[in-house]
Amino acid sequence: MTLELDAEAFEALVTDELDQLPDEMVDGLDNVVFVVEDRPEDGSLDLLGLYDGVALTERDSYGFGEMPDRIILYREPLLSIAATEDELRDEIHITLVHEIAHYYGIDDERLHELGWA
């Protein structure tokens, strides 16, 4: 059974989970927006989140006028793997940490080593 939550309620959970993250993780985020979309462009349920930007470790010059990086959470794929709201909160939390890590230049291999992927 798939958990059902409308977009507004889902976004409220994302905001709550963002507020729970350690300050040292989020204070360094610069010019990043968090976005909730129903599904990835390909329509699949395989991708839970995406970091769309240039990692901090790969930036040359970055300044005024740059479009913000985006951290996207996909509502339907996240809902499809959670049976309860607590499970959903856990998955949102893990996905946020995972995508924020990409902002800081931590790749999937290192995330696996750390237990976050």
UniProtKB/TrEMBL annotation:
CDD domains: MMP_ACEL2062 (cd12952)
Pfam families per the UniProt record, alphabetical: Zincin_1
InterPro entries: Zincin_1, Zincin_1_sf
Name of this chain's protein: Metallopeptidase family protein
Organism: Leifsonia virtsii
